[in-house]
Amino acid sequence: MPNRIAFLLVPFLCFSSAFADGERDNNPEVVRRIPKAGVPVPEERANSLRAGLSELQGKIAQVQKVGDANAKALLPDVMIFERAVRVALDYDEFFSPKDIDKADALLVEGSARADQLLAGEPEWPNQSGLIVRGYVSRIDHTVQPYGLVVPKTYAFNHSVPTRCDLWFHGRGETLSEVNFIWDRMKNPGRYTPEHTIMLHPYGRYSNAFKFAGEVDVLEALEDAQKRYRIDEDRISVRGFSMGGAACWQFAVHYPDRWFAANPGAGFSETPQFLDFFQKETLNPTPWEKQLWNLYDCDKYAANLAHCPTIAYSGENDIQKQAADVMEAALKEHGIRLRHIIGAGMGHKIDDVSKRTIEKVMTTLADREHTSFPRNLRFQTHTLKYNRMYWLTVDALDDHWKPASIHLQPRFDESDSSKFDMRCSVDNISAFTVDFPAGTFSDDPEEDPDFPLPVALWLEVGNGKPNERILGEGPFSDGSARLQVHRSDDGKWCAGPPDDSLRKRHNLQGPIDDAFMDSFVFVRPTGKAANEAAGKWAEAELERAIEHWRRHFRGDARVVDDTDVTDELIESANLVLWGDPSSNSVMAKVADKLPVKWTDKQIVVGQKTYDAGHHAPILIYPNPLNQNRYVVFNSSFTFRDYAYLNNARQVPMLPDWAVVDLRTPPGNVWPGKVVAADFFDEQWQLKK
Question: Taking the model in full, what pTM does it have?
Answer without folding.
Answer: 0.94
